[in-house]
Amino acid sequence: MLRPSFFMGLTKYHEKRNFKLTSEPRGKVGARSTKKGLQFVIQKHDASRLHYDFRLEYDGVLKSWAVPKGPSLDPTRKALAVQVEDHPIDYGDFEGVIPAGEYGGGTVLLWDRGTWEPLSDAGEGLEAGKIHFILHGEKLHGEWALVRMHGRAGDDGKNWLLFKVKDKYAGDGDILKKDKSVKTKRSLDQIAGDRDDVWSKDAKKTAKATHAKKSAWPKDFSPQLAVLAEHPPQGGQWLHEIKFDGYRILAYVKSGNVELITRNGHDWTEKFQSLAKSLKNLKVDSAIVDGEAVVLDAEGRSDFQALQAMLKHKERVQPVYYAFDLPFCNGVDLRETPLIERKKMLEKILKDSKLPKNIGYSDHVQTDGEAVQQKACGMGLEGIISKKADSPYVSRRDPSWLKSKCDMRQEFVIIGYTDPQGGRKGFGSLLLGYYDAKKQLVYAGRVGTGFDDKMLGDMLKQLKAIDRKTAPTDVDPPAREKRHAHWVEPKLVGEVRFTGWTRDGVLRHPAFIALRSDKKATAVAREKAVDPEKVEKLTPSPGTPGEGGDEGSAAGPKKRGNSKEASSKSKLTSNRGRTLTLPSPGVPGEGQSDDSVAGVHLSHPDKVFYADAGITKHDVAVYYEVAAKWMLPHVAERPLALVRCPNGTATKCFFQRNWTPTLPKQVDKVDVSDGKKKETHVMVTDLPGVVALVQIGVLEIHTWNCHRGEIEHPDQLIFDLDPGPDIKFKQMVEAARLVRKSLTQLKLPAFLKTSGGKGLHITIPIVPDIDWDSAKSFCETIAKSLVQQSDLFVANMRKDLRGGKVYIDYHRNGRTATAVAPYSTRAREGAPVSMPISWEELGKLPSANHFTVETAGRYLEKRKADPWKDFERSRVDLRKIVSGSAST
């Protein structure tokens, strides 16, 4: 008797498919082929991963196995074959496209077909896990075998091996090169391109095919909004688009007239006359198109400040409109139609309409969401939007759309300002707030960077026009703010970039981006990221349309392989080998050569930086592109010290910390003057800045222990554990654990990283409200206490005292002292990097220079979680610790 796993029937097959959406045959158990003999088919299936489906007719169904690498004529090559659900007999004739978002979504090609002849009882073979048979196909012939694997590799009986038995048909030729369909002689791309069997030819037919309803023109229509996610969701049911930085616009097209309406219902047709004129050529009777209006920079990225300048000052730049949804068309309400079908209809309408280049289609990819976000962030974009392929369109914030940002940014209500200091004009900082769950306006901190002189002057006029005597908040701001503040009516909304929130609910390291005239102040709330894995359990968030940030999006890059393979190109390749570029008229990013990473041109990209390891300038830049999302929170907007090796480690290197006008434009500057001496140091704010450092030969990036907004107050402490010449790494492990134990007793968090040299670094995040001398003194006390507790340590920097000791260096906590940044490369043999690790990993680590440019990228891609993910939320108030220590 056959075990249940072999007598599956078609229950699972039917459960996994929606036959209203897919053209796959429904079939029934017990059907018989009209052809003579037992049928076999092999279908080449380009789904989330390309594979071959091997199917044998038995007992009224097709027993089926997925063969990732396909069959081989070489008897020595045994191909993994994973048993999947039974398929109906008439599936053996299926060829076409399974819609995206459906189970197995992708292109199916009938690669081979014929009859099979079991050489023993087929039922007994299925039960025993060994089937020996002969194939009589158009491509495959002779004896073959399927053998079930046992043990862990067997995976509950699902894993088999398919291989050729040695006979006259065996050989070493690549049979998979015969890649055309035996049914239609087409290739996968040709089948994928002929989508008439999936999509109908015009909007009305598509609506009918998808069971959409005829409807009157919608009244009070509002756009769907996305929920902020901790990271991109995974799985083939998600479409990923690149997030735009512009104005969300609904285009109402009716009887040749076009109105462009913001998400809050404002008519901006006049502001975007060129877009309205182009959209009049849309070949529809009526439609509501959802999209984003943007202005593009020279790199093809949306630039919100440039868009604002265009609207305010009538600058001669052309806006572009990217359409990404079609909730209504030709008298048919498409909101219940799956997103993937709405997008296909939209794409076809735009293509058939042959609109000017200022109207584009926002494409998508269905691949690894993390990789798409990483690529987007590496190109200096805002982030990505992930949308469920089968989701309806709903006029609210809904978790079927998730936004994953490259950095933290959102809108805040401007509630006041402070006076300027020194030679600054206008104002010092803006005071910010947001509405909490009780609809109370609460204080969120201040922002004093991101303004130029013109902006300071223009905004001051607006602020004075809405002046008031008392704070507009429902919850009193801190007393220190109330003493120096000028309060205003809560009418203006500003978008702010920041690195996180303090425990007191105040922004960390904020930088102003722009005023948002399209946002209602009363709808500004604190955005909280959700876990995508729990998104199915979410209920729609309450709120009015227009709440929170923009959800505009653009075409996303497609990816083949891992992130290292994707490297620096503005184009990523899909599983089918097709290429999709970032969207723009003429394609933004077009013309960017393979010598560019994150939009920064690398001269002599093949210059060898590490001769012993063969690591080039381009390799280093691509490593930083991979590491960017983990690295930037610990490097951006901090004073830097650099080790430059213009011709690699084989030649002389030099140290640089001062900013000069000859540095690349992507490299910023920061004033670190102390009142006695005026100094301007190097700083970066994003990945292009880091890559620009690579361009000029920087192989080490060292950071101050402070942010540019708090130059006189450190926000982290570092203990550098430096081994003596005769210290083994296992002793370094012991030393690090002793330091952690001492810090834990003081209730101090301890984050660990390798130095990329011989040592280890332990970092403590603190609230920036203590001066440098106090911070250094505190670290000195801890270091000397450890010396007293263990003979393993020495706190004296004299090298002749380090024999058999680990030097605990606390001097890196002075005002101008630096330490190598997390994820920074080192100018040392082997191209090592400084890598943050978990305390659990420490005991398994062979050395402090274990991670290199060559291996770190793969490590980061496989790493399940960031060991420093709680860094920001772990900050402690050192003043309380110091006072507590003093009292005891």
Task: Outline the secondary-structure elements.
Layout: H1 11-15, E1 38-46, E2 50-58, E3 61-67, E4 79-87, E5 96-98, E6 106-118, H2 122-128, E7 130-137, E8 141-148, E9 159-164, H3 188-193, H4 203-209, E10 213-214, E11 225-228, E12 238-243, E13 247-254, E14 257-262, H5 273-279, E15 286-294, H6 304-313, E16 320-329, E17 332-333, H7 339-353, E18 359-361, H8 369-378, E19 383-388, E20 397-405, E21 408-418, E22 430-435, E23 441-447, H9 453-465, E24 467-468, H10 479-482, E25 485-488, E26 493-498, E27 500-501, E28 507-508, E29 511-515, E30 553-554, H11 563-566, E31 571-573, E32 579-581, E33 596-597, E34 600-601, E35 608-610, E36 615-616, H12 617-635, E37 640-644, E38 654-656, E39 668-671, E40 680-683, H13 687-695, E41 698-703, E42 716-723, H14 729-745, E43 751-754, E44 760-765, H15 772-789, E45 793-794, E46 806-809, E47 819-820, E48 836-837, H16 839-842, H17 853-862, H18 878-887
Parallel strand pairs: 11-20, 16-18, 45-46
Antiparallel strand pairs: 1-2, 1-6, 2-3, 3-4, 4-9, 5-6, 6-7, 7-8, 8-9, 10-17, 12-19, 12-30, 13-14, 13-15, 15-16, 16-17, 19-20, 21-22, 21-25, 21-26, 22-23, 24-25, 26-29, 27-28, 31-32, 33-34, 35-36, 37-38, 37-41, 39-40, 41-47, 42-44, 42-46, 43-44, 43-48
Helix pairs in contact: 8-12, 12-13, 12-17
